[in-house]
Design goal:
Organism: Pichia membranifaciens
Helix content: 55-70%
GO molecular function, one term: nucleobase transmembrane transporter activity
Subcellular location: Membrane
Number of helices: 13
Largest sheet: none
Keywords: Membrane, Transmembrane, Transmembrane helix
Radius of gyration: 25 Å
Main location: membrane
Length: about 325
C-alpha cells in the first residue's frame, strides 16, 4: 500500500504530462506498466537493503543515506569514490523527482487557479518556498514518520482520483465539450453553481472521512479503534471507492448539465474521440457573438461554428 501511496500523486497529476501525447493511447504503457513496475522494484530494493544492513551491521537502516555513511567506516579511495557516485545519483534522482512530480504539478494548478498572475515557473518557485517552510526534514526523522507521511498521499489523493474517475468515465462517459471548459458563465455546462460543482467537494470530503481516523492513529498521537486502523490499511481503495460512489449518488439525486443525453448512467458506452483544438478560438468567438458579448461589426472571423468543427466527413462534433 505504501508503494501505491508513493505514486498516488502521479496518478492524479498524469494529465499534466499526458496532454502532450501525440495519440490518446500513448500514456497507457507508462501508467499501466512502467509506474507500478518501477515503484514496486524500488520498494523491493529498499526492503532488501534494510534486511542486508541488519545482517551486516546488526542494525536496521531504513534510510539508504545511512547505509552509505557506514561504507565510510574505515574507507578506502574506492569506497569514497563509490559513495560519491551513488550520492550524486541520489541527488539527480531527487532533483528530477521534485521537478516532474512536485514543481510542475504545483505550477500547473496555480496557473489554472490564477492565470492572470501565475505561470508554471512562478508556481514552481512558490512550491519550493512552501517546501522549505514546512521543514520536510522532520518527516525523515524516523522510519515510522516517513511511512506515515507517505500514507497521507493515499488519504487525500485517492479521493481526488475517485471523483475524477466517476465524473469522466461513469457520468460523462468521455464526453467533454472542450471549448466550454474555458467559458466562465452559465452558458457553459461546466459552470455548475457559480463555477463550483459542490457535489464533487462533498464527495471528496466523504472519501477522506473513512481514512482520517486511522490516519490519526498512525501518527501515534491518539488511540483509535482497530476497525478504523484496518480500514486505513486499504486507504487508497477505500477513499477511491467512497468518493466515486458519493459523487455518483449525488449526481443522480441532483443532475448536472454536460452529461450524454442519449445514454443512461449505468449503460456501457463511451463518447471520447480525438479532435484537434487549433480552431477553438473561432468557436469561442462565435460563442461570444451568440451571447452578444461582442458585436458582429467587430468580428473579423468569417468561419462559423459548423465550419470550425466540421470533421473531414462533414459531420459536426467536438
Amino acid at each position: 500500500m505504501n508503494s501505491l501511496a508513493n505514486f498516488a500523486t502521479l496518478i492524479v497529476n498524469a494529465p499534466d504530462f499526458s496532454r502532450f501525447a501525440n495519440k490518446p493511447g500513448a500514456a497507457i504503457w507508462s501508467q499501466f506498466i512502467a509506474l507500478p513496475t518501477t515503484f514496486s522494484v524500488t520498494c523491493l530494493i529498499g526492503i532488501l537493503v534494510s534486511s542486508a544492513s541488519t545482517v551486516m551491521y546488526n542494525e536496521t537502516y531504513w534510510n539508504p543515506l545511512d547505509v552509505l555513511s557506514r561504507f565510510l567506516d574505515g574507507y578506502s579511495r574506492g569506497d569514497r569514490g563509490g559513495v560519491f557516485l551513488i550520492s550524486f545519483g541520489f541527488a539527480i534522482a531527487q532533483l528530477g523527482t521534485n521537478i516532474s512530480a512536485n514543481s510542475l504539478s504545483a505550477g500547473t494548478d496555480m496557473t489554472a487557479l490564477l492565470p492572470k498572475y501565475m505561470n508554471i515557473r512562478r508556481g514552481g518557485f512558490i512550491c519550493a518556498a512552501i517546501a522549505y517552510a514546512i521543514c520536510p526534514w522532520n518527516l525523515m526523522s524516523s522510519s515510522s514518520m516517513f511511512t506515515t507521511y507517505l500514507s497521507a498521499y493515499s488519504v487525500f489523493l485517492s479521493s481526488i482520483a475517485g471523483v475524477v474517475f466517476c465524473d469522466y468515465y461513469i457520468l460523462k462517459k468521455g464526453l467533454l465539450y472542450l471549448p466550454d471548459l474555458y467559458i466562465a458563465n452559465n452558458s457553459s455546462p461546466y459552470f455548475y453553481s457559480n463555477g463550483v460543482n459542490w457535489r464533487a467537494y462533498v464527495a471528496y470530503i466523504c472519501g477522506i472521512l473513512p481514512n482520517i481516523v486511522g490516519f490519526v492513529g498512525a501518527t501515534q498521537t491518539h488511540t483509535v479503534p482497530m476497525g478504523a486502523t484496518y480500514v486505513y490499511y486499504f486507504s487508497f481503495f477505500t477513499g477511491y471507492a467512497a468518493s466515486s460512489s458519493v459523487l455518483l449518488i449525488l449526481t443522480l439525486l441532483f443532475p448536472i448539465k454536460g452529461m450524454p443525453e442519449d445514454s443512461k448512467v449505468f449503460e456501457f458506452k463511451f463518447y471520447e474521440e480525438w479532435h484537434e483544438v487549433e480552431d477553438f478560438d473561432i468557436y469561442l468567438r462565435n460563442k461570444d457573438l451568440d451571447l452578444g458579448i461582442i458585436d458582429a461589426d467587430d468580428d473579423d472571423t468569417s468561419s462559423s461554428i459548423e465550419d470550425a468543427f466540421a470533421s473531414p466527413s462533414g459531420e459536426k462534433g467536438f
